[in-house]
Amino acid sequence: MVCLILFILGGIPQLILHRNYYEVNKGDVLTCDTTSKVMRFIHEGREWVFSMDDIDEVMIYKTPPYNKITIWSNYNYATIKLHTGMKIIILSMMKGDDVETLIDEYKVDEYKIDVDERFFPRVYGPCVVPA
Description:
PH-domain like, about 25% helix
């Protein structure tokens, strides 16, 4: 009985987040050429190509350190805002990695990055918001 209660308390929120992340970014592709500093994002057959210099800011949404005991603590996402005003959301499920590691790997300037810690980092809205 205790195991069932723990599964319900931990498993259901994780399933909600997993479905939310899947619905937002299903089939999306994110690639980056660190040599030329160019990112390519493909969503629903449309492609956007931009350079690292086009990035205005990156907001990373993740669970706070005290929340690492929850099953869903690996779920996180980032909003990339470009100079044009366009916003792109990338999720940890896209690369199977922490978004913060992904952003660091792509060598985005640190002064453009901010972190917002949330107990339940659910994504609201579309993954691409045109300018």
